[in-house]
Amino acid sequence: MAKHVKGATAVETHSAVLDLIRSGGVVSRIELADRSGLTGASISRIVRQLLDDGLIVETGFGDSTGGKRRTLLQLNPKSRHAVGVSLDFASITYVITDLGGQVVARLESAGIGHESPQVVITRIAGELEGLLRTARVDRDTLVGIGIAAAGRQDSRHHVLRANPEATEWELFALEDTLGAETDLPVVVENDSTCAAIGEFWVGRIPASADFATVYLATGFGLGLVTNGDVYRGSSSNVGEIGHMVLDVNGPRCWCGSRGCLEMLAAPRRIVDLAMQAPDLVSELDLSGDVADTRRDAALIARAAAQDHPRAVTLIEESAFYLSKALLSATNLLDLDQIILAGPGFSDAGEIYLRVVSEELNRLSFVRAVHPTKVGLSTAGSNSAALGAATLVLHSRLTPHQTSSRLALSR
Ligand SMILES: [Zn+2]
Helix, strand, or coil here: 230? Predict the structure, then answer.
């Protein structure tokens, strides 16, 4: 930890000390000096500033050392809050977290569907105000809103790019519009990257691990963390595993390729296959409409989780294609761990987990060297929204640091 703090800029030093207090629970100034490598005088100055800002509080006295009383410090979690919003075709999930990253309120509402972006943004602003009131969170404590969004992004121009189901969002200035509507800073990030940040934050992952999160909502995305840092690629569009080609002669995908994972294994594909069997359609009460894809896929997944043989076959086929995509991903990246996250795994996650684990442990190139552990997210359908809120805490409280820098948070 000391190597991160020494030689950092003033703002980085400030936030790194704050993070040492957060991760340490209850600490003294002397312990902070030891852990950070900073001088006692620097620590005293920074701690004074953090106390003045209300971000930390003094919480009593520890054992004296050399006759000097040690005042103990801890984070003041209620002093600041962040909002995370997962923006998806089928649902919008909100979480409010405190400064320590604990979820204090949650709301799920209708997805963006085919509403125009401006209508959705106005609705989000209203729903957020309602949630703040219900949760009794003081608006003045909010540091900002993080948005976890699907689809291609153009972070340089602060716009979302193509999403096949929501074309009106093409080139829509999401950050600026929502920022103006709510009068709060807004950051936008890929939903699978947010899910990876959320998993890292809830603490199941060692800081040194190289891991990936597969996020399944309408399509598949892969969030990557290497050595405690998010890997973003050159334009924050890393991890489009949904467009990994698994069948060169397969069905044409909206992205232009053929036989992409999304075409072979996404919820829409599962529902389309089920719709070919009229008796299954009536038994499970499937609608088949694109607008009902999430509901139909969940009905099939729930039937599969209860061992309905034909539903199991449909989910296993989807899981089989996913396992092949993840086999290529881990052969390429040498991953320790893969977490399955997002609403697409809520109902039949255990089946995906079994199929993917078996395939990776049977065929991964590095299987003789180390296993590739596969697990289900504990944050469930909250993971992207939670990651987006975490991103805000980092980017607003550590403004000169790249928001992807997670090494200081653990
Ligand atoms: Zn594609």
Answer: strand
User: How far is the centre of ligand 1, averaged over its atoms, from the C-alpha of 241 (Å)?
Assistant: 9
**Ligand 1 geometric centre to CA of 245 (Å):** 7
All residues with CB under 5 Å from ion ligand 1: 243, 253, 255, 257, 260
> The tokens of 82 are what?
């962040």
| 189 vs 390: CA distance, rounded Å | 11
pTM of this prediction? 0.79
Token duo for residue 84: 């995370």
Residue 280: which residues within 8 A CB-CB, separation 6 or more? 274, 286, 310, 311
Read off the pLDDT band of 404 (50, 70, 90). Answer: very low
By C-alpha distance, which of 401, 381, 394 is closest to 95?
381
- Distance, CA 304 to ligand 1 centroid (Å)? 27
Q: What's the half-sphere exposure (Cβ side, CA atoms, 13 Å) at 249?
A: 0
Q: How confident is the model at residue 398 (pLDDT cuts 50, 70, 90)?
A: low
Q: How far is the CA of 325 from the centre of ligand 1 (A)?
A: 13
Our CA angle for 143, 146, 148, nearest 5°, is 170
What confidence category does residue 403 fall into, taking pLDDT thresholds of 50, 70 and 90?
Answer: very low
* Ligand 1 geometric centre to CA of 254 (Å): 6
Cα 402 to ligand 1 centroid, rounded to whole Å:
30
State how far the Cα of 386 lies from the Cα of 389, in Å rounded to an integer: 5
Model confidence at 166, in pLDDT bands (50, 70, 90)? low
- What single letter denotes the amino acid at residue 157? H
Q: If pLDDT is split at 50, 70 and 90, which confidence band does 320 have? A: very high
The residue with tokens 């030093």 is 13
Chain segment 169-225, per-residue pLDDT in tens: 777 888 899 999 999 999 888 888 888 888 876 665 666 678 899 999 888 999 988
Q: What angle do CA 388, 393, 394 make, to 5 degrees?
A: 95
